[in-house]
Amino acid sequence: MLILAVETATDRGSLALADAGRVVGEYAFTAPGSYLQHLLPGLEALLAAAGRRLSEVDALAVSQGPGNFTALRIGLATAKGLAWSLGVPLVAVSTLEVVAAQIPEPDRPVGVLIDAKRREVYLGLYDFSEARAQELDDPRRLPLDALPARLSPPLILTGPGLSAYEEFLRTSLDPEIQLAPLEMRHPQASTLARLARDRLQAGITVSPQDLSPTYLRPAL
Fold it and tell me: pTM for the complete prediction?
């Protein structure tokens, strides 16, 4: 099964093609805010580099948020339109879970931070002791100053919000909380594709008309 994954929730977006659990191509967007102009050309470049055609795609996966409002709308609109036109299943995955799943075989819970601007963050907490990540609490938006009181070891903390506020967090968090390496902190389409494959096997899909972004804050 060839899965096309669309990740545009943050300023480091990407596309990926995965077949039978193996990534056969990935395309990264290096310029923040470039999705409107470059998402479809990036898809064409990805397909050409992988030697595949759009008609070969068997399923679509999209990062649902939370994240940047405009970027999420562009990514979801593209994924929904492609799924509808191709007549293939569509899978949506929380962006917080995508980031959490990039920690290889975590031996403790994983906390994910995404920058919500205005010194606020989106927070997700996940347990990986079972086959699939389990939410330890509902994802939420928090003032940055309220975050340290909600986080305690054992915990691995990751996400682009960690990078945005790392100086504050390093001096405010329990020193036993482990901070993920920089290369694991941003959502990647290849990870999204892997999570989508598990959901497809379990029959967990969404119809394009029912899918909307997860904002955790009213759009301005």
Answer: 0.95
